[in-house]
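Researcher: I'd like a candidate sequence for this fold, 648 residues long. If you have to choose between options at a position, lean toward the conservative one.
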């Protein structure tokens, strides 16, 4: 190489280095500008709120999304941000579906001294760690940090933060079948202290209690979900509203109006919260029972979750897809068919399904118990041999299952451990279910019904309240309605004793009426003349004195009328005490018998006869009093209403 060549080489090298420096400086300037815009957007959020409350005037999702690729490439950018900005960025990333970055942010925050010295920041840092760990399928870690956040918040009277932490703790404890009694009790106390307008504290307390009572007392759980949504919408907490919509998708009583589903989805789309939007879509498809749309939504959500390392959402999407495939297989095949066995193996042998089951079994995850147990036990007890993955799932230890899971496992384990005596397993399961508050549309009762139809097992089901009947046949066959008897309890005896006391002591009744000038408008209607007669009644009647005798006769007829009213009530109480009152229960068709129907018919006939006798007695009293008084003093309609409510 000559000197000229060397000179050219040096000049070219210097130019290249200078170009790299310029590019690096330009990128650094761009990064600083992007981070600055990000911080400006984060400052718009209220750091005191535990959920995700979108600012009233909105925020620029583009400025936030522009920073995410930079942060993924270089996590050191996060260290240059202030703690308040990091707290809100971590929360926003978690809501937007970036759990790994959110978890990294929480680790940075928990190492800072200014965070440790500020209870609000400290608690919220633990909440970000809890949420992100749950999404990464690290539920034990999620529970640990949720409990730490709740402890810090309780010590500093941060009610909103504590309520949110309790919700996360209960939710993840349920997923691992752990005890939630301590957290449930604390949530009830916190909700009581929050008052009627509990704000965001009330929203998260109600959501926590709905998870605490789910499949234990479904009616009350649904009520908490409705109240939670009301509080969340009043305070614009989008995260709480999404959580509520997911919980209410299959509700029977408390449901969310159609327009709110649209509003929440639009808000999620507008603010770049694609995970929220897709979850709302899935819940809506479940609510509308749109199977094809649900499957399409599951595939989209699975791809979305896989690309962002949202492992919990990915695994649950895969399991939900497997459950829907199993449902279709069961609809298209019959019990005992070889085709059913083959298709079940194909579904569970898919690579993605195997990976999901490996994660579930390794971590003892029970968040999908309700659906998986129902289908696996139904298949096993109806004569289909289960693959190893399904058998492994059934054999997992469940320390604190809810009542529904407990009933299904009791059925399965009794059947397995008692020489496969299905009738004995049914009897024990029904005995247990009758001690719970689960209604006939619960998975455990539906499971019994399905198996009984296949195996011809006899059992009785509970009453299904009318407000839960509309959608009860989603998975179960149609039942016949049979009339049964419902007896009154100790309250009847108390009422009877009081009525008998009054009827057996007419002097007490007459003196009390005279002293207090009783003119109860709910029992009778008196004109002014009759009131005048009552106010001038002598304490004793001299039957030789015609004027006194006439007054005594007037009030005597009045007393007979009042006594007749009490007698009418007593007859109603006695009839219900010994004969019961109508009560609907559901029975499988195989249980109906002519003897039962005949006994119910006789019971209804006897009730009708007694009602007829009662009305005849009332009519005679009215007619007798009408002979002595020109004006009517008793309202037959009032009597009819009393009798009607007594017999229904």
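Model: Candidate sequence:
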């Amino acid at each position: 190489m000559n000197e000229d060549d060397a000179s050219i080489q040096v000049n070219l090298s210097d130019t290249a280095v200078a170009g790299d420096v310029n590019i690096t400086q330009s990128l650094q300037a761009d990064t600083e500008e992007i981070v600055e815009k990000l911080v400006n957007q984060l400052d718009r959020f209220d750091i005191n709120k535990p959920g995700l409350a979108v600012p009233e005037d909105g925020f620029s999702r583009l400025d936030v999304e522009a920073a995410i690729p930079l942060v993924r490439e270089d996590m050191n950018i996060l260290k240059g941000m202030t703690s308040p900005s990091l707290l809100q960025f971590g929360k926003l990333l978690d809501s937007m579906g970036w759990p790994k970055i959110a978890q990294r942010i929480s680790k940075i925050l928990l190492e800072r001294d200014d965070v440790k010295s500020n209870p609000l920041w400290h608690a919220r840092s633990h909440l970000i760690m809890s949420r992100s760990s749950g999404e990464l399928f690290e539920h034990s870690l999620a529970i640990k940090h949720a409990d730490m956040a709740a402890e810090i918040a309780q010590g500093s009277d941060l009610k909103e933060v504590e309520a949110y932490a309790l919700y996360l703790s209960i939710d993840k404890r349920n997923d691992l079948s752990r005890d939630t009694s301590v957290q449930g009790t604390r949530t009830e106390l916190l909700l009581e202290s929050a008052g009627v307008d509990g704000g965001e504290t009330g929203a998260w307390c109600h959501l926590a209690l709905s998870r605490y009572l789910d499949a234990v007392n479904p009616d009350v759980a649904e009520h908490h979900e409705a109240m939670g949504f009301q509080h969340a919408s009043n305070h614009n907490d989008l995260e709480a509203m999404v959580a509520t919509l997911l919980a209410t998708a299959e509700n029977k009583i408390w449901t969310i109006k159609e327009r709110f589903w649209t509003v929440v989805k639009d808000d999620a789309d507008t603010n770049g919260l694609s995970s929220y939007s897709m979850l709302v879509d899935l819940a809506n498809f479940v609510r509308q029972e749109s199977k094809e749309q649900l499957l399409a939504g599951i595939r989209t959500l699975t791809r979305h979750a896989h690309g962002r390392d949202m492992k919990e959402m990915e695994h649950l999407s895969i399991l939900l897809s497997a459950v829907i495939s199993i449902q279709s297989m069961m609809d298209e095949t019959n019990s005992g068919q070889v085709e059913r066995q083959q298709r079940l193996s194909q579904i569970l042998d898919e690579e993605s399904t195997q990976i999901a089951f490996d994660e579930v079994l390794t971590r003892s995850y029970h968040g999908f118990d309700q659906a998986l147990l129902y289908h696996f036990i139904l298949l096993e007890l109806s004569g289909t041999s289960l693959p190893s993955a399904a058998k492994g799932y059934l054999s997992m230890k469940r320390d604190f299952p809810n009542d529904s899971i407990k009933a299904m496992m009791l059925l399965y384990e009794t059947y397995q451990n008692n020489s496969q005596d299905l009738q004995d397993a049914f009897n024990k399961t029904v005995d247990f279910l009758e001690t719970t508050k689960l209604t006939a549309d619960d998975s455990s009762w539906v499971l019994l019904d399905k198996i009984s139809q296949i195996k011809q097992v006899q059992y009785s089901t509970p009453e299904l309240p009318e407000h839960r009947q509309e959608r009860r046949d989603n998975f179960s066959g149609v039942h016949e309605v049979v009339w049964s008897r419902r007896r009154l309890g100790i309250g009847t005896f108390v009422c009877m004793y009081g009525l008998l006391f009054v009827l057996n002591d007419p002097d007490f009744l007459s003196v009390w009426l005279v002293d207090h000038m009783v003119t109860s408008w709910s029992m009778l209607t008196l004109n002014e003349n009759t009131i005048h007669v009552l106010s001038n009644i002598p304490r004793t009647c001299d039957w030789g004195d015609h004027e006194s005798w006439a007054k005594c006769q007037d009030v005597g007829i009045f007393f007979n009328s009042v006594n007749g009213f009490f007698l009418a009530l007593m007859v109603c109480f006695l009839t219900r005490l010994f004969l019961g009152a109508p009560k609907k229960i559901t029975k499988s068709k195989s249980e109906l018998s002519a003897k039962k129907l005949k006994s119910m018919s006789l019971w209804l006939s006897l009730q009708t006869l007694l009602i007829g006798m009662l009305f005849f007695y009332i009519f005679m009293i009215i007619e007798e009093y009408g002979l002595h008084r020109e004006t009517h003093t008793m309202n037959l309609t009032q009597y009819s209403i009393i009798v009607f409510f007594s017999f229904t």
